[in-house]
From TrEMBL:
It comes from Sesamum radiatum. Belongs to the elongation factor P family. Pathway: Protein biosynthesis; polypeptide chain elongation. GO terms for biological process: peptide biosynthetic process. It is found in: Cytoplasm. This is Elongation factor P. Keywords: Cytoplasm, Elongation factor, Protein biosynthesis. Pfam families: EFP (PF01132), EFP_N (PF08207), Elong-fact-P_C (PF09285). Its main location: cytoplasm. Residues 104-158 form the Translation elongation factor P/YeiP central domain. GO terms for molecular function: translation elongation factor activity.
Amino acid sequence: MAGISAFKCPCFRPPSSSLSYTSNPFLLPHLRVSSPRHRPTFPKIYAITSNDIKVGLNIEVDGNPWKVIGAAFVRTTLRNYVTGNQVEKTFRAGSKIEEADIFKETKQYTYKDGSQYVFMDLSTYEEFRLNEADVGDKSKWLKEGMDCSLLFWKGKVIDFELPITVKLKVVEADPGVKGDTAQGGSKPVTVDTGAVVSVPLFIGVGEEILIDTRTGQYMSRA
Protein backbone atom coordinates (compact mmCIF):
# COMPACT_ATOMS: atom_id res chain seq x y z
CA MET A 1 0.00 0.00 0.00
CA ALA A 2 1.07 3.53 -0.77
CA GLY A 3 2.60 5.55 2.02
CA ILE A 4 3.65 2.53 4.02
CA SER A 5 7.38 1.80 4.11
CA ALA A 6 8.84 -1.62 4.66
CA PHE A 7 9.40 -2.48 8.38
CA LYS A 8 12.37 -4.47 9.57
CA CYS A 9 12.29 -5.87 13.08
CA PRO A 10 15.43 -4.89 15.03
CA CYS A 11 15.40 -8.19 16.90
CA PHE A 12 16.97 -9.84 13.88
CA ARG A 13 19.95 -7.54 13.68
CA PRO A 14 23.10 -9.35 14.67
CA PRO A 15 24.22 -8.12 18.10
CA SER A 16 27.81 -9.19 17.51
CA SER A 17 30.05 -10.67 14.88
CA SER A 18 29.85 -14.06 16.57
CA LEU A 19 26.35 -14.66 15.05
CA SER A 20 25.69 -15.40 11.36
CA TYR A 21 22.42 -15.06 9.50
CA THR A 22 20.87 -16.34 6.28
CA SER A 23 19.28 -14.02 3.70
CA ASN A 24 15.84 -14.83 5.09
CA PRO A 25 15.19 -12.32 7.92
CA PHE A 26 12.63 -14.59 9.57
CA LEU A 27 15.00 -17.49 10.15
CA LEU A 28 16.75 -17.77 13.51
CA PRO A 29 20.47 -16.94 13.46
CA HIS A 30 23.07 -19.69 13.42
CA LEU A 31 25.53 -19.44 16.32
CA ARG A 32 29.12 -20.24 15.39
CA VAL A 33 30.87 -21.84 18.36
CA SER A 34 34.60 -22.05 17.97
CA SER A 35 36.35 -25.01 19.64
CA PRO A 36 38.66 -24.03 22.52
CA ARG A 37 42.36 -24.04 21.82
CA HIS A 38 44.19 -26.79 23.68
CA ARG A 39 47.69 -26.06 24.93
CA PRO A 40 50.08 -29.01 24.75
CA THR A 41 50.90 -30.45 28.15
CA PHE A 42 54.28 -31.79 29.17
CA PRO A 43 55.34 -33.79 32.20
CA LYS A 44 56.49 -31.44 34.97
CA ILE A 45 59.73 -31.99 36.80
CA TYR A 46 59.05 -31.10 40.40
CA ALA A 47 62.58 -31.21 41.81
CA ILE A 48 66.16 -31.74 40.75
CA THR A 49 69.42 -31.85 42.65
CA SER A 50 72.48 -29.66 42.19
CA ASN A 51 74.12 -32.62 40.43
CA ASP A 52 71.57 -32.23 37.61
CA ILE A 53 72.44 -28.58 36.90
CA LYS A 54 74.06 -27.99 33.52
CA VAL A 55 74.23 -25.29 30.86
CA GLY A 56 70.88 -24.82 29.10
CA LEU A 57 68.78 -26.13 31.97
CA ASN A 58 65.68 -24.16 32.95
CA ILE A 59 65.23 -23.80 36.69
CA GLU A 60 63.02 -21.89 39.13
CA VAL A 61 64.80 -19.95 41.88
CA ASP A 62 63.15 -17.60 44.41
CA GLY A 63 59.87 -17.86 42.53
CA ASN A 64 61.36 -16.80 39.16
CA PRO A 65 62.30 -18.78 36.04
CA TRP A 66 65.99 -18.89 35.10
CA LYS A 67 68.13 -20.47 32.40
CA VAL A 68 71.59 -21.76 33.25
CA ILE A 69 73.99 -20.02 30.86
CA GLY A 70 77.27 -20.28 32.77
CA ALA A 71 79.55 -23.24 33.30
CA ALA A 72 79.06 -24.99 36.63
CA PHE A 73 81.73 -26.81 38.61
CA VAL A 74 81.85 -29.89 40.83
CA ARG A 75 84.26 -29.72 43.79
CA THR A 76 85.60 -33.05 45.02
CA THR A 77 88.01 -34.53 47.55
CA LEU A 78 90.11 -37.33 46.08
CA ARG A 79 92.32 -39.96 47.70
CA ASN A 80 95.12 -41.57 45.74
CA TYR A 81 94.87 -45.36 46.04
CA VAL A 82 98.61 -45.84 45.51
CA THR A 83 100.13 -43.07 47.66
CA GLY A 84 97.25 -42.41 50.05
CA ASN A 85 97.49 -38.64 49.46
CA GLN A 86 94.32 -36.54 49.49
CA VAL A 87 93.73 -33.53 47.23
CA GLU A 88 90.93 -31.07 46.46
CA LYS A 89 90.03 -30.96 42.76
CA THR A 90 87.35 -29.08 40.83
CA PHE A 91 85.81 -30.41 37.62
CA ARG A 92 83.72 -28.52 35.08
CA ALA A 93 80.19 -29.94 35.11
CA GLY A 94 79.57 -32.14 32.09
CA SER A 95 83.27 -32.66 31.36
CA LYS A 96 84.31 -36.18 30.48
CA ILE A 97 86.39 -38.08 33.03
CA GLU A 98 87.95 -41.46 32.40
CA GLU A 99 86.76 -44.08 34.86
CA ALA A 100 89.47 -46.12 36.55
CA ASP A 101 89.39 -49.80 35.61
CA ILE A 102 89.25 -51.15 39.17
CA PHE A 103 87.71 -54.50 40.03
CA LYS A 104 87.21 -56.47 43.24
CA GLU A 105 87.94 -60.08 44.10
CA THR A 106 87.20 -61.89 47.35
CA LYS A 107 90.33 -63.20 49.10
CA GLN A 108 90.84 -64.60 52.59
CA TYR A 109 93.17 -62.98 55.09
CA THR A 110 95.38 -65.82 56.29
CA TYR A 111 98.23 -64.44 58.41
CA LYS A 112 100.70 -61.61 59.00
CA ASP A 113 104.25 -62.09 57.78
CA GLY A 114 106.44 -59.46 59.42
CA SER A 115 105.12 -56.10 58.22
CA GLN A 116 102.97 -57.65 55.50
CA TYR A 117 99.41 -58.92 55.57
CA VAL A 118 98.91 -62.02 53.45
CA PHE A 119 95.66 -62.74 51.60
CA MET A 120 94.99 -65.95 49.68
CA ASP A 121 92.85 -67.03 46.76
CA LEU A 122 91.35 -70.26 48.11
CA SER A 123 90.78 -71.68 44.63
CA THR A 124 94.32 -71.16 43.29
CA TYR A 125 96.23 -70.70 46.60
CA GLU A 126 97.86 -67.62 45.11
CA GLU A 127 99.01 -65.12 47.75
CA PHE A 128 98.60 -61.35 47.71
CA ARG A 129 100.47 -59.11 50.15
CA LEU A 130 99.74 -55.66 51.53
CA ASN A 131 102.11 -53.57 53.64
CA GLU A 132 101.15 -52.13 57.01
CA ALA A 133 100.88 -48.68 55.43
CA ASP A 134 98.38 -50.05 52.90
CA VAL A 135 96.23 -51.67 55.58
CA GLY A 136 96.33 -48.75 58.02
CA ASP A 137 93.66 -48.56 60.73
CA LYS A 138 91.71 -51.40 59.14
CA SER A 139 94.12 -53.80 60.86
CA LYS A 140 92.25 -53.44 64.17
CA TRP A 141 89.25 -55.25 62.66
CA LEU A 142 91.21 -57.76 60.60
CA LYS A 143 91.08 -61.35 61.82
CA GLU A 144 92.62 -64.52 60.37
CA GLY A 145 90.18 -66.46 58.20
CA MET A 146 88.20 -63.31 57.31
CA ASP A 147 87.00 -62.86 53.72
CA CYS A 148 87.85 -59.43 52.32
CA SER A 149 87.55 -57.72 48.93
CA LEU A 150 90.87 -56.88 47.26
CA LEU A 151 90.86 -54.02 44.75
CA PHE A 152 92.96 -54.54 41.60
CA TRP A 153 94.18 -51.87 39.15
CA LYS A 154 96.46 -52.72 36.22
CA GLY A 155 97.17 -56.12 37.75
CA LYS A 156 98.22 -54.70 41.11
CA VAL A 157 96.46 -54.79 44.49
CA ILE A 158 95.89 -51.16 45.51
CA ASP A 159 93.48 -51.50 48.44
CA PHE A 160 91.10 -53.82 50.24
CA GLU A 161 87.69 -53.61 51.86
CA LEU A 162 86.61 -55.21 55.12
CA PRO A 163 83.20 -56.79 55.62
CA ILE A 164 80.77 -54.15 56.89
CA THR A 165 80.03 -56.26 59.98
CA VAL A 166 82.59 -58.36 61.86
CA LYS A 167 82.21 -60.70 64.82
CA LEU A 168 84.86 -60.28 67.51
CA LYS A 169 85.40 -61.72 70.98
CA VAL A 170 85.78 -59.64 74.14
CA VAL A 171 89.06 -60.53 75.88
CA GLU A 172 89.25 -57.72 78.46
CA ALA A 173 86.45 -55.85 80.21
CA ASP A 174 85.76 -54.10 83.50
CA PRO A 175 82.78 -55.54 85.39
CA GLY A 176 79.64 -53.43 85.15
CA VAL A 177 78.41 -51.54 88.17
CA LYS A 178 74.91 -52.30 89.46
CA GLY A 179 72.40 -49.66 88.56
CA ASP A 180 74.45 -48.31 85.63
CA THR A 181 72.70 -50.53 83.09
CA ALA A 182 69.40 -48.77 83.77
CA GLN A 183 71.07 -45.47 82.92
CA GLY A 184 72.26 -46.80 79.55
CA GLY A 185 75.93 -46.50 80.47
CA SER A 186 78.86 -47.88 78.50
CA LYS A 187 82.42 -49.04 79.09
CA PRO A 188 85.51 -49.79 76.97
CA VAL A 189 86.44 -53.40 76.22
CA THR A 190 89.29 -54.99 74.30
CA VAL A 191 88.49 -57.50 71.55
CA ASP A 192 90.65 -60.32 70.21
CA THR A 193 92.16 -58.16 67.44
CA GLY A 194 93.46 -55.69 70.02
CA ALA A 195 90.95 -52.96 69.22
CA VAL A 196 89.17 -51.09 72.03
CA VAL A 197 85.41 -50.71 71.63
CA SER A 198 82.75 -48.94 73.69
CA VAL A 199 80.01 -51.40 74.65
CA PRO A 200 77.02 -51.54 77.06
CA LEU A 201 77.84 -52.32 80.69
CA PHE A 202 76.28 -55.80 80.55
CA ILE A 203 78.88 -57.10 78.05
CA GLY A 204 81.49 -59.30 79.72
CA VAL A 205 84.67 -61.18 78.92
CA GLY A 206 84.21 -64.12 76.57
CA GLU A 207 81.18 -62.71 74.78
CA GLU A 208 81.12 -62.24 71.01
CA ILE A 209 79.90 -58.94 69.65
CA LEU A 210 79.17 -57.44 66.24
CA ILE A 211 81.09 -54.33 65.16
CA ASP A 212 80.39 -51.96 62.25
CA THR A 213 83.81 -51.58 60.60
CA ARG A 214 82.81 -48.30 58.93
CA THR A 215 82.29 -46.55 62.27
CA GLY A 216 83.98 -48.85 64.77
CA GLN A 217 80.80 -48.88 66.83
CA TYR A 218 79.23 -51.75 68.77
CA MET A 219 76.08 -53.11 67.11
CA SER A 220 74.85 -56.01 69.23
CA ARG A 221 75.72 -59.34 70.73
CA ALA A 222 76.60 -61.92 68.12
